[in-house]
Amino acid sequence: MDYTSILALISFLTGNARDEFATLKAGAAEGKPITQILCPRPLPVDEIEGKTVFCGQVQVPEDHTKPDGKKISLDFAILKSHSLYPETDPLVYLQGGPGASAMVQIPLLAKAFEPWRKTRDVVFWDQRSAGLSGRSVKCFNALASNAAKIAKKEYTTTAIDGSNESSNTIADCLREIEAAGIDISKYNTTENAKDVSTIIKALGYTRYNIYGVSYGTKLALETMRVAPEGIRAVIIDGVAPSWVKLYDTFAQKVSEPIEHVVEQCKADTTCNATFPDLDKVIIETLHAAKAGKVMHQGKPVEPKTIFRPFEERNAKYGNLSMTPYLPAFIYELHRGQEMPTVDLLVGRNFVMPMPGDDDVAKASATLPKTQRALIGTLADNAVISARIDRSNQNVIEELRDEIDAEKNYGPVAILFDTELEKALIAARGSDTSKGASMVADYAALQNTNPSKESLGTFVKTHTTGEATARLMALIDGMNDAELAGSFAIIQRDIAKSEEGFFGDLYLFNYACQEDLPFNSFEGYQAFTAAQKYPYIGDDADEAARFVFGSCIPFKKVQRDNWQVPVQSDIPTLSIGSLYDSQTPASWAKIATEELNNAQVFMIPEAGHGALLYQPCVADLGVAFINQPGRKLSDACAKSINIEWYIPDWAKAAK
Residue-wise over 278-310: b if at least 16 C-beta within 10 A, else e? Predict the structure, then answer.
């Protein structure tokens, strides 16, 4: 961050800079259903609210067949194009999940979609019953009574046989939502799809492009089906078509990535010669592991452990790929002799770190001394640069926190929050029952109107002595803004402890109502039993039972055309990733069955959301959005090579 950037930051913090979003704010003032809000923290160092990023809320109908009826608020963000002459059609990112928040991922999204910002704005939002927009389907009473369990992620679900456990927070929550007059069936993908065009128009755009990932691909396809007006081009990445039985096919998410490793190894001369018949060896190793005959460091290796690296590389986009090590990993377990590759992966808990000093030193070891010295200086500079970047991020966040606290909470509210935390810790001690009661009553405050009386009642109930007197004095000294700030802090704190529960609830809301009518646990069992690789159920059963069991309290809603492929002429780019263990790569092809203007690409060495794994995917996507009619080559996939790891024992055997 240079002096020019610092001066620009001061200018915007003090309100002396030109407002880049003045037109949008003016539209809101003229009656459009938009209000500005603070962007969730953290933000990237170079993103400044009002200049490069705008966060707000937009009103949409809860039921689009009743446009003048009940409205709900959705939180959105606009990442402004860097160009002074941007294209008029933005890139709209549709978040996955379902139920996940795009708004809390602004740093990741700003980095991922940076290539598009050279020519376009990037727009995204938290969908209905998702992330920060999920407030319209909250269940405060159920949360308050189960707050301690939710904070520890101990909320229970319903068993598959339908029997209720001691406490079913999901069922309690649904009853409360229904009693409040909220029609949960309106929180679905079709209504989401109609939200897309409503939001785009409210933000002042007429044409737009879509980039959907995971559930966002399902939403993109549904938008093409029910609200195609204004869509210029669509990219779907990590594809989940609604006409695939997503939950019956849990096992495919594991078996297909294994098949890809087998195919890739077989296609490579060195890998195939070193690890022949890899498919057969994998199956034999799984059978041996199930029989307790595969050992590592004196302990039996379960089939689950064998599946782990094939699956877990899917979530490691910030680390090196494990793919090059997988054939050696399998062969060593099968042979039962030297196991350097197994030691490596298990010892690192199946996480391959990014390169460091040791890797640089090893790679430059054969170079002349003067060249090694220069490379060492480069490595030192890389460390210094990373430290500076972290320091700048921390300082900027602290500055933003200071400004937010002053503007939105007030000094008395901040002091009250600090003192209350100390008093509650002291009063609770080691008494877990007291702690549970405190959490429940604190959570209940988020569902009350801000008042000194309710805050005072909580303080008197859960604190004692001088702490009580000091806290009551702070409450008495609060003005209206500071009182509101205290309750805003309560809502912020409670939201953090509840996000795990609501993440599941929001996902179940979509999955259980839309997908489960076409899936069943029996269907899952039959599909799993038919898989080529044995014992996948050992790994997948727990997740399947969790989803099918949690869905029992929901009413299944049959959807028109839900299992019918989308038909469209809109230019579409469909991307599958060869080690995606959430949405199998083959689904990228299935999604285009009835799309007359689609191109499909398979990306090696990429997991769920290829954009996050391989830089060339951004090149592919930018080229497509800039010219949707262009026929693209397979240069991205061909540029990615796998350097298969050959351990010393395998080299000696040749």
Answer: bbebbbebbebbbeeebeeeeeebbbebbbbbb
Give the closest residue to 223 by CA, choosing from 589, 568, 622: 568
Strand ranges for 404-563 from DSSP E: none
CA proximity to 288, closest of 299, 279, 301:
301
pLDDT, tens digit (0-9, with 9 covering 90-100), for 549-577: 888 888 888 778 889 999 999 999 999 99
**Structure tokens of 633?**
């080559």
| Band of pLDDT at residue 12, cut at 50, 70 and 90 | low
Dist. CA 260–CA 197, nearest whole Å:
38
Average pLDDT, integer, range 524-549? 90
Higher per-residue confidence, 12 vs 163: 12
Integer angstrom CA distances of residue 231 from 211, 226, 626: 11, 12, 14
SS3 category, 361: helix
The whole-angstrom separation of Cα 264 and Cα 272 is 9
User: Distance (Å, rounded) from C-alpha 53 to C-alpha 324?
Assistant: 40
Give residues with Cβ within 8 angstroms of 434, minimum separation 6.
427, 428, 462
Confidence of residue 166 (pLDDT cuts 50, 70, 90): very low
Q: How large a percentage of the chain has pLDDT more than 90?
A: 59
- What is the CA angle 302-308-314, rounded to 5? 170
Q: Name the nearest CA neighbour of 103 among 86, 71, 139, 78.
A: 78
Q: What is the DSSP letter of 568?
A: B
pTM here?
A: 0.88
